[in-house]
Amino acid sequence: MVQNGIARNLGNANYGYFGILQSDLLIFSSLGDFGIATLIIAFFAKKATTGKLFLNIFQLRFLSSVAAATAMLIFALVARKNHAIFYGELILIPSLVFQHAFFDWYFTCGAFWKKLLISKILHTISYATVMTVALAILKIDSIEWISFCMVIAALPAWAFGVTNAFSRKLLNISKRTFKFIGLMYKAALPYALASIASFMYLPLGLYFVDHFAPAEFLSAYNYSNKLIALASGFMVHFISSSLLSLHQANDGKVHIKDQGIFTIFITICSLPLFVFPEWILKILFFAAPWDSNTLAISCMALRILSASLILQAIRMPYISLLLKEKQVWKYVIFISIGGIINFASCYLALNFYGPKWTPLAVLAGDVSLTLFLAADAIKSKKYA
Predict the structure, then answer these.
(1) Phi then psi for 254, rounded to 5 degrees?
(2) What digits encode the pLDDT tens for the residues 265-321?
(3) How far is CA 53 from CA 44, 364, 368, in A?
(4) How many Cα atoms sit within 13 Å of 74 on the Cβ side?
(5) Which of 71, 188, 203, 314 has the fewest other C-beta atoms within 10 Å?
């Protein structure tokens, strides 16, 4: 609903730029996390909520967020200075430190499920209220003011976390803190690299379009890219479920039958994106200021990009198996090479053939990674 309001108020061109801004924020949020939240839950569980360990983890998370905010500031000053989102980027930087999900690890590790639920409900109410007033009543139509409203909307949930977890002792940063940070970053490095390399796939197309294509094409491409990115986020939950199942079954094989059934399931779910892209776009972005050209480009992109979901379904069991066997570095190598191939493909396509080839070019990374993982499974005889 909020995205519809933003698209309506900003208009197609500025909404395309807003997509770039949101992608930047997501990348620097991932840099700030660095795969550490997963490690905290996996390594320490409830121990992470008490004693000196809690102090060190909180300090790690806070200093990592500050480092990510600093990196985003430098990036904005260097790479976004003459861009339409420059001031919006500067305004969103504090949200990396005061983000609504900052204390999620604390609630999850301590099994404080009621508090986690309250935090999420509080953020939902705050976000809905602030953005409704901003978009529907005040009718704010600038990237800068919308960014400011997003920062304000996150503060109540962050403040709720502070009241439950903060104490003055957390400000006592010692040598132990930096030693702990070094150990955690070392352990999280492969997970972080894999996460960062993933931005060389679907999100990369948006940046190339922004650089090489006119604003009209960027706005049209942004609608489709946002839907596929959202669907890809759901796939992460399937990978987590698959990984848990592998651990419970103590199985070290990729079962072709199970893989085939899951791929068919995802293909059926993705079919409407290919067959009825116009309906999907008009339903989900019902308030967007569509015109015939924008809709045609967005439909074309959505049809092609939907293949990414099927490729993700095919390689899901391979990824789960590699993670289970702790062969993370092998996965990092595969996903990094695929990212480089994707970068080269997008660069060549936009330079020599024009922006309309972007959706097809951006699938090069998905195809490459899928082939790498399948070849490795065949070579290691991990099929069953």
Answers:
(1) -95, 115
(2) 889 989 999 999 999 999 999 999 999 999 999 999 999 999 999 998 888 878 777
(3) 9, 43, 41
(4) 7
(5) 71
- The three-state DSSP-derived secondary structure of 182-245 is HHHHHHHHHHHHHHHHHHHCHHHHHHHHHHHCCHHHHHHHHHHHHHHHHHHHHHHHHHHHHHHH
Distance CA 355, CA 281 (A): 20
The domain ranges of the chain are: 2-188, 201-379
Distance CA 149, CA 137 (A): 13
Q: Tell me the per-residue pLDDT of 240-266, one tens digit each, with 9 for 90 and over.
A: 555 555 555 555 667 687 778 888 988
- How crowded is the C-beta side of 190, counted as CA atoms within 13 Å? 12
Q: Which residues contact 333 (CB under 8 A, 6 or more apart)?
A: none
Q: Are 374 and 340 in contact (CB under 8 A)?
A: no
Structure tokens at 354: 């024009």
What distances in angstroms separate CA 254 from CA 157, 245, 273, one per listed residue?
41, 12, 28
